[in-house]
């Protein structure tokens, strides 16, 4: 094949029987190199290039490894290729220049075949003499005989050659797919990993990070231990109040929304920041009513500022338009149908009127005689049967299956009646003597017209479902063809007397009436009668009017003579329900909804989110105490998200005294920060292909809080896009120092609110200088920045300020300790993730106590509890990771920062 690289001789000799196999293998290498998973890794490190990968894949050992899983497909391809090559070689052998005598014999044989196909036998006998003579000549001449045999063999092999070629192509495609999927593809992935060198997981190469860009997208949510515990608790309780407790960002809202999605009826509301129990219950009441109306398929009532006439017009305008359009077509169509069928139906009525009347009179006489006999006591058995029938009828008054029974009978009657009426019309043609006589005359006198009509019927009935017809490769629209065929049928109708007599038969009008009546009965199967509005829907609608409108009624009475007129006017206005009434009505409505759903094995969930927004635990507990009256509805699960301190109050119930949570909550589910395994699962779902070191970095910075975990994962991608860094050492350094700069800015604001003296303000200068170092972060080794971080991380006011340290307030000391511990935590992350050879150091740390990477997240979470306990844990982590501690005298002052970005690595654009 021109344009394709040829394989080396050793490849053909050792692993490939044909050059086409080597070419196919080379094409598979090209396809594997173009795959996104491999292409995005090429060029990340100097030795991982496409040329090096190809050279490695072309070594004898790797070719054997790549081909081994696909030997069966290769053997099938090779067998097909062998047969194809054999046929091609045989054709090349048989092919030779055509001799003149061979051309003459071939033309002579072709002429004989043409004459044989079109001429009489006498001509054939005369013309057959030259071919017979030529055949004897070929038989006697060996050269001619060889040419004829070679040309015939070449012609036969050439005719079957495309079949073997297509088979070889098909086997080649199958082998290449198998080779790419299970042979060369996986092997090339391992080759690329090997060329990337050690610590290759330190490269940032995610497949996608769309999930990180959509934090609230439900399709990326995965289950965790908290969701499983909540599901078990809800399955054990038919109803009750369950609190979901945990730190902010731990996924409480997501957990509530997941439970609401799985419920049969659910309402999710947000607790107000400044709560008012009456207004909260009012909004919850309205939300429940609107949700129920929406789920039942009913429109919500509109409370627009419109006059009564405009409101009525707006409500009934669509119905009026539809009715007007229906009448425009229904009245003329009905008048035409009635006019055309009136005579036939009237004749049928006159024919059977007397017989039907006499039959009805006889039936009525029999019924009256039977009733008189029962009343007179002459028919005792019938009287007993009538009595039993009356008792049974009374017992069936509460049977719930009447509607289904009547619906089934109506469906059966309309279906059977419609089909019988439609079939009766054409069936009656076989019993009509006039129609049979006309059909015989039409077959005898107008066979072509009969054939045309049969063709029209076939096209109209057999091809009804097609929108377009294709005739001879030409696509035709259906409706124009319909019109053309019907016009032709009408012309034949008036120009063919037997056909005209058949169409104008007196019974055809009655047959048309039967068909229309049958179609009407079949159409009646889908008719639905207006159903009364369910009581719960009416109740919800009424409550919405009651809760969202103020209704006023007034009346006026005028009395007296024209000379003396007296007017009396009364006005009545509804009073909004007070809180106790609102609670009672809400519980009654919710109980009815829950009872309905529970009967259908459904679940009702009322989720109240963001209770921890209320501020302190005292306000949250007060809110629970106010809304406690609506809790405890049978078969209703209340899910309430609360802060950790409210959950701790429930856990401590009775110690030392009982609080509002004891009587408000039935159980509680604590949402803990994610473990390292759960964090990896979240990031893998949202950013497939994100390597483990970056998951560990995001987990450590977030402390296992899912909201922060997603934020830090997106921050990693942002830094990669901004700086074009791909190595863990560069990305982690940039990310940790940027996060540290933002946090220290917040601490500096808090420190500015404290009282400082000229002796104690030196600490502010240290923080200022450190933030100056963080303003121009550079991947180059910076000893000054490292010394500045050590100065703040191991800051001791007594050592650095001396006697002036006593002038610091307790709040200032606490803030300094918190800031110092956080800087120590950031410095530890830099030493762990910012140093080369992360994989080896992690494996070594895992063998020591406190060397688990999950402890880094625990230290981050411990910073929110106490800086002293966090510092102790961080020092243990540094020991486990063999991070050197400062020895000797600590730097007494932060070095001055640079005033401009590094010239070798300018500051990346934001």
TrEMBL record:
Entries under InterPro entries matching the protein: P-loop_NTPase
Keywords associated with the record: Membrane, Transmembrane, Transmembrane helix
Sequence intervals crossing the membrane: 123-140, 323-344, 380-396, 408-431, 446-464, 476-494
Name of this protein: Uncharacterized protein
Organism of this sequence: Streptomyces cyanogenus
């Amino acid at each position: 094949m021109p344009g394709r690289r040829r394989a080396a001789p050793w490849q053909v000799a050792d692993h490939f029987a044909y050059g086409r196999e080597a070419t196919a293998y080379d094409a598979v290498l090209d396809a594997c190199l173009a795959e996104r998973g491999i292409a995005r890794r090429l060029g990340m490190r100097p030795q991982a290039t496409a040329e090096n990968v190809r050279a490695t894949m072309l070594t004898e050992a790797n070719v054997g490894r790549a081909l081994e899983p696909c030997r069966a497909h290769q053997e099938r391809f090779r067998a097909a290729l062998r047969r194809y090559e054999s046929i091609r070689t045989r054709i090349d052998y048989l092919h030779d220049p055509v001799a003149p005598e061979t051309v003459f014999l071939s033309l002579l044989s072709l002429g004989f075949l043409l004459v044989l196909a079109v001429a009489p036998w006498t001509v054939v006998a005369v013309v057959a003499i030259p071919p017979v003579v030529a055949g004897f000549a070929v038989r006697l001449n060996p050269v001619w005989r060889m040419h004829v045999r070679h040309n015939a063999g070449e012609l036969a092999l050439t005719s079957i050659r495309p079949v073997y070629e297509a088979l070889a192509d098909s086997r080649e495609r199958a082998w290449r797919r198998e080779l790419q999927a299970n042979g060369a593809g996986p092997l090339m992935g391992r080759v690329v990993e090997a060329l990337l060198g050690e610590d290759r997981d330190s490269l940032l190469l995610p497949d996608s990070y769309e999930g990180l860009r959509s934090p609230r997208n439900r399709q990326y949510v995965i289950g965790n231990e908290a969701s499983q515990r909540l599901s078990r608790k809800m399955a054990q309780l038919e109803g009750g109040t369950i609190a979901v407790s945990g730190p902010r960002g731990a996924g409480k809202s997501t957990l509530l929304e997941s439970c609401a999605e799985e419920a049969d009826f659910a309402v999710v509301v947000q607790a107000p920041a400044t709560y008012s129990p009456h207004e909260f219950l009012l909004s919850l009441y309205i939300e429940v009513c609107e949700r129920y109306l929406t789920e039942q398929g009913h429109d919500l009532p509109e409370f627009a500022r419109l006059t009564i006439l405009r409101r009525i017009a707006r409500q009934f305008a669509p119905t009026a338009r539809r009715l007007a359009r229906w009448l425009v077509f229904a009245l003329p169509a009905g008048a035409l149908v009635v006019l055309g069928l009136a005579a036939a139906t009237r004749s049928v009525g006159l024919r059977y009127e007397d017989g039907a009347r006499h039959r009805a009179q006889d039936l009525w006489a029999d019924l009256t005689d039977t009733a008189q006999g029962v009343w007179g006591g002459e028919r005792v058995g019938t009287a007993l049967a009538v009595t039993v029938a009356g008792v049974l009828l009374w017992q069936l008054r509460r049977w719930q299956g009447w509607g289904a029974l009547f619906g089934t009978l109506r469906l059966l009657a309309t279906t059977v009646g419609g089909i019988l009426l439609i079939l009766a019309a054409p069936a009656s043609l076989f019993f009509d003597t006039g129609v049979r006589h006309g059909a015989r005359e039409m077959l005898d006198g107008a066979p072509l017209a009969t054939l045309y009509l049969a063709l029209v019927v076939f096209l109209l009935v057999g091809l009804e479902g097609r929108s377009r017809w294709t005739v001879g490769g030409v696509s035709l629209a259906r409706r124009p063809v319909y019109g053309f065929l019907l016009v032709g049928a009408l012309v034949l109708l008036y120009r063919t007397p037997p056909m005209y007599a058949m169409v104008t038969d007196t019974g055809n009008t009655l047959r048309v009436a039967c068909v229309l009546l049958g179609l009407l009965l079949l159409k009646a199967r889908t008719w639905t009668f207006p159903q009364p509005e369910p009581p719960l829907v009416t109740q919800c609608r009424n409550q919405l009017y009651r809760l969202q409108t103020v209704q006023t009624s007034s009346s006026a009475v005028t009395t007296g003579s024209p000379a003396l007129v007296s007017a009396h006017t009364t006005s009545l206005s509804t009073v909004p329900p007070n809180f106790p009434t609102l609670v009672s009505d809400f519980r009654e409505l919710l109980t009815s909804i829950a009872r309905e759903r529970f009967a259908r094995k459904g679940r009702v969930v009322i989720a109240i989110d963001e209770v921890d927004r209320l501020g302190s635990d005292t306000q949250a507990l007060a809110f629970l105490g106010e809304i406690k009256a609506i809790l405890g509805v049978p078969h209703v699960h209340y899910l309430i998200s609360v802060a950790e301190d409210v959950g701790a109050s429930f856990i401590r119930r009775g110690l030392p005294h009982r609080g509002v949570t004891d009587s408000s909550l039935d159980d509680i589910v604590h949402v803990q920060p994610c473990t390292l395994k759960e964090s990896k699962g979240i990031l893998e779902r949202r950013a497939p292909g994100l390597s483990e070191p970056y998951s560990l970095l995001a987990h450590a910075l977030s402390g296992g809080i899912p909201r922060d975990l997603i934020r830090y994962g997106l921050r990693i991608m942002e830094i990669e896009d901004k700086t074009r860094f791909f190595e863990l050492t560069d990305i982690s350094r940039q990310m940790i120092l940027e996060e540290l700069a933002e946090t220290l800015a917040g601490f500096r604001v808090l420190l500015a609110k404290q009282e400082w003296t000229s002796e104690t303000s030196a600490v502010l200068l240290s923080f200022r200088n450190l933030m100056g170092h963080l303003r121009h972060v550079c991947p180059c080794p910076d000893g000054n920045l490292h010394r500045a971080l050590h100065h703040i991380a191991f800051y001791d006011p007594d050592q650095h300020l001396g006697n002036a340290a006593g002038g610091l307030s307790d709040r200032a000391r606490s803030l300094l300790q918190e800031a110092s511990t956080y800087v120590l935590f950031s410095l530890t992350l830099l030493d762990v993730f910012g140093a080369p050879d992360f994989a080896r150091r992690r494996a070594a740390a895992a063998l020591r106590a406190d060397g688990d990477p999950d402890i880094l997240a625990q230290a981050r979470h411990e910073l929110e509890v106490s800086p002293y306990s966090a510092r102790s844990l961080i020092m243990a982590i540094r020991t486990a990771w063999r991070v050197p501690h400062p020895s000797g005298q600590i730097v007494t002052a932060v070095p001055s920062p640079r005033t401009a970005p590094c010239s070798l690595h300018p500051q990346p654009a934001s």
